[in-house]
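Hi support team,

I'm filing this because I wasn't sure whether my run with FE2/S2 (inorganic) cluster finished correctly. The job status page said complete, but I'd like someone to confirm that the output block is well-formed before I use it downstream. Pasting the exact inputs I used:
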Amino acid sequence: MVTIQLNGQELTVPENRMVLEVARNQGLDIPTLCFHEALGPYGACRLCLVEAEGPTLRKGLLASCTLTVSPGMVIETDSPPVVQARKVVLELLLGRAPESRPLKALAERFGVTTSRFGNEAQGNCVRCGLCVRVCREKIGAAALCFAGRGQKKQVTAEFGQLSETCIGCGTCVNLCPADAIHLEDLGDQRRIFLPENTISRLPLVACRLCETPFQTEKFIAYVRHKSDIEGATTIPQDICPSCARKVYAETITGDFLV
Ligand code: SF4
Ligand code: FES
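And here is everything the job wrote out:
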């Protein structure tokens, strides 16, 4: 255990905890974009800055998601330098993704409504890397990557072409904090895309019962494979969620619903 001071309050917390986790456990509001509990620390967006100092640490602004607590550390999460730096980071992010509604709402929550860093940037992507990382580290598909540098840096599929490894699961879409990456089912095809780049186009399999296209073959195969190796029982993969609910209700009530 280590003893630290957080916003003037002395706390004893387990070693190896990140300052962000400790602060949030205390109910403190530290905004984040590139952090997700399911993925390791990354430190890309700098939005989670706090002021910290300690016996072996010079006072400064540091990303709390990559900062481990150490004995005697003194941390401030809302000091004037933190508030000021957070506003500048939000302005920079707004300059990078001027059309992102979630980002605008987040910035507004911290008193930022305009950006001095306006540029030619378009779209919603804040380059937080969550989509790239979750696809590689959790799904194992590595369908996404960053291409380009500086203002031109953007999320694409490998080699800027349609991805051959994307399974169309939509995890990237669900995790994106900026509403920059989308999933669209049109007819019997699923498209994963950013306004500036299409990541994949995948055929959809039709539900065995209602015949509505609902899921990609690759995703069904992925779930089957996972349940095979993990020995988990899953719902049938060849019927859509709506029919699955009806079948489930039918087995409970005994009524014929599908
Ligand atoms: S598309 Fe979304 S998740 Fe991916 S880097 Fe951009 S903002 Fe982050
Ligand atoms: S959340 Fe810590 S740097 Fe992005």
